[in-house]
Amino acid sequence: MTPLPDDRLERRLPDAKPVYLPGEAVAEAHRCLYCHDAPCVTACPTGIDIPTFIRKIGTGNVKGSARKILSANLLGYSCARVCPVEVLCAGSCVHQHQGEKTIAIGRLQRYAVEAAFTRGDAGALLRRQPANGRKVACVGAGPSSLACAGYLALEGVRVTVLEKRALGGGLNATGVAPYKMHVEGALAEVEFVRSLGVTIRTGVEVGREVSPGDLLRDHDAVFLGAGLGHDTALGLPGEGGPGVMGAVAWIERLKLEPGFALAGVRRAVVIGGGNTAIDAARELARLGVPSVRMLYRRTASEMSGYAHEMEQGRLDGVTLVERAVPKAFERDASGRLAGVALADGRSEPCDLALVAIGQARIGALARGFAGVAVDPTGCVVVDAASGATGNPKVFAGGDAVSGGDLVVTAVQEGKRAARAIAAALGIAVRAGAAMNAGHR
Predict the structure, then answer these.
(1) Is residue 234 part of a domain?
(2) What angle do CA 269, 274, 278 make, to 5 degrees?
(3) Any residues with CB less than 8 A from the CB of 210 and at least 6 apart, and which?
(4) Helix 105-119, helix 183-195: angle, nearest 10
(5) Whether the Cβ atoms of residue 136 and residue 221 lie closer than 8 Å to each other
(6) Which of 113, 177, 361, 410 measures 20 to 30 Å from 75, CA to CA?
């Protein structure tokens, strides 16, 4: 695993939902009704057999539980930690209709998979087929590519993942809120996928170190799962000076940069109303910034961020300012950030402003592959059922296609593409039969 420096700011933010102790996990598992027509399974994009994996925990078969999870979702560990279970599996739990607390599905899933990672035998839980001579390249080492690569490797395909960064994991490593998962968790999952027989090459940028033409020539298929690019800027006066950053870039520094600190920051604003904005605001508040305010151009009911996350943000000390439309970043005589001027004449004083209004698409990279179309927003155009593009050798999934969605949907799209690639290459799916599970 890639060595990480100890003096990273994210290490000051502990787990919001610590892993269960064995007795706690068994007690929670016994609360499950093991529904025959379980709505939680239907709500899971990857189609994990949730009642069965929970039953296995309740009977002490934790290894079997982990196998059940990973067969349907190779990134079941990170999904257990970062999925909005409140609106997916747990949000569909029948207990809520009885006025009872829903089953803690995410924490149970984490318990089972983390036990396998701790034992070091996670890779042995899934049976690999003999090598079949086929070769596939996956661009990017985020959740979608890792899922696609892992499932194909289980079917005997020789898979190489190319990642331009120095470490794999994609947004799981660089952008997940630390109180949900630290970088170490994302890297442990990368090593699990590597243990399935996947080659992961970091520091290799497609279009620079290797061309799209080279990949198409040397492989039977290529999967594009490169995710998104840099933070989108507002383009307002004063934005280009110190104290103003993109929220995704700031979170990455928080998680990875040694010695990164918030010295002198007493008032911070986060501009945006999505989940990234909420995560950044909660992180600032939990790190002790006295005043953290989210500026959103509409009302709370119109925010794309999850309501339960915003409520937690309020408990952390975040204040939401509605109908706040920035028009300029204000600076003092020395050029330091002083505040954000709003269109209605108000001003929000601040020492730090994070912009969380979206990220650039990877259209330029995708266009390098002959026959691959990109829509007006820069997202790759694919067949919804297979992830196939206009080039019969190229498939795509994850944020490169959706423009930004959940980790679990990116995993399902990687699994979907793996199934389609296997079919295109004439591979009869056996080891990864759960490749066929999933609902989105």
Answers:
(1) no
(2) 50
(3) 162, 204
(4) 60
(5) yes
(6) 361
